[in-house]
Amino acid sequence: MLKEPEVETSKVLFLPHGREVDVVAGESLIRAALQAGVHVNASCGGGGVCGKCRVLVEEGSVAGGISERLAPEDLERGYRLACLAHVEGDVTVRIPVESSIDASALNNQVTPRRTATIQEVDFDTLKEQGLFVAPVVKEYLEIPPPDAQNNMPDVSRLVEELKLKGNHHKLELTLPVIRKLPAVMRENDFKVTATLIKPVREDGKILVTNVQAGDTSAQSYAIALDIGTTTVYCQLIDLNTGECLAEKGDFNGQISYGEDVISRIIYAEKGEGLQTLQRVVVETINTVIGAVIRKAKVEKENISTITIAGNTTMTQLLLEIDPKYLRRSPYVPASTLYPPFAAVSVGIDLSDQAIALVFPQVSSYVGGDIVAGIMGTGMYRSEELTLFLDIGTNAELVIGNQDWLACTACSAGPAFEGGGIEFGMRAAKGAIEDFLIDPVTYEPMILTIGDERPKGICGSGLLTMAAVMFEMGVINNSGKFNRELKTDRIRCRENVWEYVIAWQDETQIDRDIVLTEVDLENLIRAKGAIYSGCMTLLEEVGLTMDAIERIILAGGFGSYIDLEKAITIGLLPEIDPERVTYIGNGSLLGARMSSLTNAIRRDVVEVTRRMTNFELSETPSYMNNYVAAMFIPHTEIEKFPRLKTRMESRNPKHEAA
Predict the structure, then answer these.
(1) Are strands 341-342 and 355-358 parallel, antiparallel or unpaired?
(2) Per-residue pLDDT at 654 exceeds 60
(3) What CA–CA distance (Å, rounded) separates 86 from 76?
(4) How deeply is 492 buried, as exposed, middle or buried, from its count of CB atoms within 10 A (0-12, 13-18, 19+)?
(5) Which residues of 505-540 are buried (b: 16+ CB within 10 A; e: fewer)?
(6) H-type alpha helices, 427-516
(7) Whether the predicted pLDDT of 404 surpasses 80
(8) Mean pLDDT on 544-558
(9) Which of 423, 417, 458 is nearest to 555 (CA)?
(10) CA distance 309 to 586
(11) Residue 556 to residue 562: CA distance in whole angstroms
(12) I need a surface site. Which of 342, 450, 470, 580 has the fewest CB within 10 A?
């Protein structure tokens, strides 16, 4: 059901290093260098301001790269600024001495960047595998008008024609449909289109939720919605083609009342707190829905369903269900299953006939967003033993295949979303997202989102900084800086040691951007929680990491994870990157697929019932694993043999653990 998207790539060879990398056409040379693990001096984040990333294009051609910081004779010889030059085809680039490092240090560079293979859904396979069972059908009907000899009620006439079309299940009309039926039938000479919600099971009934004058069967749409703790994402789906017509995301308005689910549960317990949080999230939902409707230029009346996936807390807040018992032992949700309901009944701005369907939960901390991801990836139907990992403020993990599933959740904290980090920020323009360091001068090479001057550090940048600094010996396995290094980047300020990532005059914020030992402590705690969650769940089901055949990463953070760097700091167990795939927003993926086929809705209840949940707080081995993971990468470097070999080859005297 998942396929790799087809993309055009080009080869970039970096000299004198002899490193070659495949990049997407149009990629900048500076990002290609980072992907290859080649250091090019760059301190402005890739904005073309510092002029330090001069490179010589020896073969092939690039687009752009011209700057007033390059002399005319340099431009004529083929020099370009790597941050402004974009790959047009295969190209050979030489890194000149002034832009590179001492050749004797080349072997000390960190490993090339390796990200997960990004995969997308191939909806054609739904039909090929017999999984496509349309949940919504619009039937165009030409109904014989009544006369003296045939004066059946309007409802009976509609039902009779629908049965003639092959709808043999019991048919049930909603009251709003009955109310509008007489006028709609006569508006266009008894030519109407009925919207049918098909049953998930054979013994179910067909619900007639709308009737429209004329033929509107080509205009059939659904909304897929992911309600996250931080963001809300929405897709508008064409039910006839499976195509996503528009997508929109926005920050969840509840952020103003707490960054995480615990703080929002606490707020919900105060006075009108629950009602406030429900109203605020609905306002965000209506904003993103309105945006996709305007972009796709569709009528609300032609949207028949909205499929909603969210964690357990977000689901209960949307439905205005008191969530306070979710954080109290034994951590019991109000329900794991919710009936379909009219979307307008909770304030969602759709027509009266739009039906809302909510993904079920497993437990207080493994919610409908994770269930949707499991359903969307199809791992519950696969023979392959799979580890599904969704990383955010909380990390949810699922292990299993078609025979069994086990799950758990652990609190990683906000470090990967910029929280608890002095200059941390969410992924946005100006956030430092990638990083290398010169092993001789210890000067940084940074890139920012949007290639702007830096203003903070996002989660992927933080992870990469820690990994690179550890491999270069800038920090030790406890996250403490090497104070013996000859660089003014490492300093002590107000009794806290730090490394200056960007000087004040290079930033947008008129301050030095630094990474502190306190920041590194928070990162180590976050990565330790995720790693120990993986190990504990594996132990509880009697497996080791060697048994895992496939790893699926989900969530916004997963798209930016450099796998080798994540392994280097001990966020993930040491695994073959070829076994890792990235699916993006798994919650939204599952909601979209559920909008398109009843096969997902048919299976989801059974899947949730066979997912065995482990509460880590009640699992004795978790704390032992957590304490052992509070180092980079771990107290036992033998658990990371590739990293150990790599570091010993660079510096036999380096103490990796």
Answers:
(1) antiparallel
(2) no
(3) 17
(4) exposed
(5) ebbbeeebbbbbbebbbbbbbbbbbbbbbbbbbbbb
(6) 459-471
(7) yes
(8) 84
(9) 417
(10) 10
(11) 13
(12) 450
How far apart (Å, rounded) are the C-alpha atoms in residues 131 and 116? Answer: 27
Nearest to 554 by CA among 237, 312, 309: 309
Phi-psi region of 653 (alpha: psi -120 to 50; beta: other; left: phi over 0): alpha
DSSP for 530-546?
Answer: HHHHHHHHHHHTT--GG
- Of residues 211 and 439, more confidently modeled: 211
Determine the Cα–Cα distance for residues 42 and 52; give it in Å rounded to an integer: 6
What does DSSP assign to residue 42? Answer: B
482: its two tokens: 């090497």
Residues 6+ apart with CB under 8 A from 593: 121, 123, 126, 375, 376, 600
What average pLDDT does this structure show over 572-592? 87
CB 84 within 8 A of CB 67: yes
pLDDT of residue 108: 40
Q: How far apart are CA 549 and CA 529, in angstroms?
A: 23
What is the β-pairing status of strands 9-15 and 2-3?
unpaired
H/E stretch holding 10 reads strand 9-15
Q: Does pLDDT of 134 surpass 60?
A: yes
pLDDT surpassing 60 at residue 110: no
Q: 387: which 2 tokens?
A: 């580890």
Q: Tell me the per-residue pLDDT of 151-209, one tens digit each, with 9 for 90 and over.
A: 899 999 999 999 999 887 889 998 889 999 999 999 999 999 999 998 888 778 999 99
Distance, in Å, from the CA atom of 47 to the CA atom of 341, rounded to the nearest integer, reads 50
Instruction: Determine the 3-state secondary structure of 58 from DSSP.
Output: strand
From the number of C-beta atoms within 10 Å of its C-beta (0-12, 13-18, 19+), residue 23 rates as buried
Determine how β-strand 303-310 pairs with β-strand 221-227.
parallel
Percent of the chain with pLDDT over 90: 55
Mean pLDDT (whole number) for 317-327: 95
Dist. CA 308–CA 490, nearest whole Å? 48
pLDDT digits (tens, 9 = 90+) for 408-464: 998 877 777 777 889 998 778 889 988 989 888 899 989 888 888 899 998 889 999
Question: Cα separation of 144 and 189, whole Å?
Answer: 9
Q: In this structure, what are the phi and psi dihedrals at residue 156, rounded to the nearest 5 degrees? A: -65, -40
Short-list 453, 458, 465, CA closest to 510 = 453
Closest CA to 359 of 135, 551, 120, 592: 592
8 Å CB contact between 224 and 235: yes
Which of 54, 55, 47, 45 has its CA nearest to residue 12? Answer: 55
Q: Looking at this protein, which amino acid is placed at residue 237?
A: I
The Cα diameter of the chain in Å comes to 101
Nearest to 223 by CA among 346, 369, 351: 351
Taking Cα atoms as reference points, which of 223, 193, 354 lies closest to residue 295? Answer: 223
Which DSSP string corresponds to 185-203? HHHTTTEEEEEEE--SSTT
The band of 130, judged by pLDDT with boundaries at 50, 70 and 90, is low
Phi, psi of 303 (to 5 degrees): -95, 115
DSSP 8-state symbol, 412: -
- Statement: residue 71 has pLDDT above 90: no
Kindly list the distances between the CA atom of residue 312 and the CA atoms of 237, 276, 284, 294, 400, in Å, as whole numbers in the listed order: 25, 18, 18, 30, 21
Global pTM reads 0.79
